[in-house]
Amino acid sequence: MRRMNFMLAAVVMAGAWAAPAAVAQPVPAPPSAVHATSAKPPFSYEDCLKAAKKHGESARYSRWHCDQLVKKGWVRQPKR
Fold first, then answer.
1. How far, in Å, are 39, 46, 50, 67, 68 from residue 56 at the CA level?
2. What does the longest C-alpha to C-alpha distance in the chain come to?
3. Could you say which of 6, 35, 43, 80 is the most buried, measured as most Cβ atoms within 10 Å of its Cβ?
4. Burial (CB count within 10 angstroms: exposed 0-12, middle 13-18, buried 19+), residue 36
């Protein structure tokens, strides 16, 4: 049993010694400007409704779902 405790302590200490080396890794560069959000959302509200209908959502639920996507910025405002 003492050997197991010694081995466990050795593994824990090796992990503790390796942890600062993992923290010292350089920070990754920020994403390029290609991935930056555009000025307007990429999808129209009508396309959202069509896709929701295609996936079998009810009319009421698809309007709610598309409204949520408008709030998140994924879909353009509807033309009402």
1. 31, 16, 10, 17, 18
2. 76
3. 43
4. exposed
Read off the tokens for 59.
């009319």
pLDDT digits (tens, 9 = 90+) for 50-75: 999 999 999 999 999 999 999 999 99
Which residue is associated with the tokens 């639920």?
Answer: 61
Residue 35 phi/psi, 5-degree rounding, is -90, 0
Taking the C-alpha atoms of residue 69 and residue 66, their distance in angstroms, rounded to an integer, is 5
Task: Let me know if 16 is exposed, middle or buried by CB neighbors in 10 A (0-12, 13-18, 19+).
Answer: exposed
Residue type, 75: V
Supply the DSSP string of 25-64, one letter for each residue: SPPPPPPPGGGS--SS-SB-HHHHHHHHHHTT--HHHHHH
